[in-house]
Amino acid sequence: MLLEVIATCIEDAVTAEQGGADRIELITAIGEGGLTPGIGMVKQVVRSIRIPVHVMVRPHSRSFVYSQPDQEVMAEEIKAIRQAGAAGIVIGALTPAGRIDRAALERWLPLAEGMNVTFHRAFDELADLTGGLAELKAYPQINRVLTSGGVMPAPQAIPVIADLVRLSRQPDASLAQESPAGSGQEGQTQTRQERPVILAGHGLTIEGIADFVQAAGVAEVHFGTSVRRDGDGLKEIDPERLRKLVKRLKG
Predict the structure, then answer these.
(1) How many domains does the chain have?
(2) I need a surface site. Which of 15, 35, 88, 103 has the fewest CB within 10 A?
(3) Domain containing 234: what range?
(4) Where do the segments described as Disordered lie (predicted)?
(5) How far apart are CA 244 and CA 98, in angstroms?
């Protein structure tokens, strides 16, 4: 099992690493679902920890439909994040019709060469999740999809997530690749049987995680609020809650 934990500052990132997280997603504005952190923060976090740092690229929380100026901003952010040495980026974009914005992806992905790429929960706003996953399979550089199986919390969408996991693991030799390391950061490998990896998040709890993992069949989970002090997204990561989660995930 791999555990990704949201970090909003250097202290979060260090606590997450010390508590047993395998990777962090670095964001700001957790109350808005996560926006792009400042590049100074990115540089300092990458220097402060050894586990992979994946950085959110999202300029605003109005929607996942991005104008051309928005896309230009995001392109510049991707270039800066790559130069800062992060292992990956977290992106997503939809068309006004609610489909995956393939033109935006094709603009951004070459800028993230050598990095891990997660397509974030914009995925959950698609009308057809299995069709969306098939579309994302056309981009070997996208090696993760963060999803709760739709707009509901993940524990309420276990059959959908389990189906996405099954589809992601269908063998396809043409999609085999290794997820390379970002500059100075360890990468993580996917096989031809599983790409993109389904990263389950949103609404997961420490108490219910073991049953969820068994039922959904996921190999990676994503936690934010549940590992924070008093379960409050605006408070710091609680080392004890994180240790309890790691123990339940990994024994």
Answers:
(1) 1
(2) 103
(3) 2-250
(4) 172-193
(5) 39
pLDDT tens for each residue of 29-76: 999 999 999 999 999 999 999 999 999 999 999 999 999 999 999 999
- pLDDT tens, residue by residue, 132-188: 999 999 999 999 999 999 999 999 999 999 999 999 998 664 444 443 334 345 444
Euclidean distance between CA atoms 226 and 167, whole angstroms: 28
CA angle 203, 96, 158 (to 5 degrees): 25
Q: Residue 139 and residue 134: Cα distance in Å, rounded?
A: 10
* Runs of H (alpha helix) within the chain: 10-19, 39-48, 68-83, 102-108, 129-136, 158-168, 209-216, 239-250
Helix or strand (DSSP H, E) at 110: none
* Phi, psi angle pair for 50, to nearest 5°: -105, -25
Three-class secondary structure of residue 31 per DSSP: helix
As beta bridge partners, residue 17 has none
Residues in the chain, how many? Answer: 251
Instruction: Determine the Cα–Cα distance for residues 71 and 105; give it in Å rounded to an integer.
Output: 10
